C-alpha cells in the first residue's frame, strides 16, 4: 500500500523553489530538476515537484504513514526555510 499526500504552495516563483529544493537534496540523495518538474527520492519515500501557475505542487509518497509524515516534514520544512522571505506556507492534504 502507498500513502500519498499533496501540497500546493502559493508562490510567484515556483521554478526557483523547486530547483532550489532539488539541488539542495541532490548533494546527498537522488534528486533531479528539469525546467518545471523534479523528483527527490529518499530512502523512506519520494517527493515529486511540479510547477503550476501561481504555485509549486508537491506530491509525497511512502509505504507507511510514519514515513509519509517524515517526508512531509523534511521537504516542507526545507521549503519554508528557503522561502522565508516570501513567507511560504506548506499544508499537506491526503492525495485523491
From TrEMBL:
Pfam families: DUF2218. It comes from the Bacteria. InterPro entries: UCP028291. This is DUF2218 domain-containing protein. It comes from Kibdelosporangium lantanae.
Amino acid at each position: 500500500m502507498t500513502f500519498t499526500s499533496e501540497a500546493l504552495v502559493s508562490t510567484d516563483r515556483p521554478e526557483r523553489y523547486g530547483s532550489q529544493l532539488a539541488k539542495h537534496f541532490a548533494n546527498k540523495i537522488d534528486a533531479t530538476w528539469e525546467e518545471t518538474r523534479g523528483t527527490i527520492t529518499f530512502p523512506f519515500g519520494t517527493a515529486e515537484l511540479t510547477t503550476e501557475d501561481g504555485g509549486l505542487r508537491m506530491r509525497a509518497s511512502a509505504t507507511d504513514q510514519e514515513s509519509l509524515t517524515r517526508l512531509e516534514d523534511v521537504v516542507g520544512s526545507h521549503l519554508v526555510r528557503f522561502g522565508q522571505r516570501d513567507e511560504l506556507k506548506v499544508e499537506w492534504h491526503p492525495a485523491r
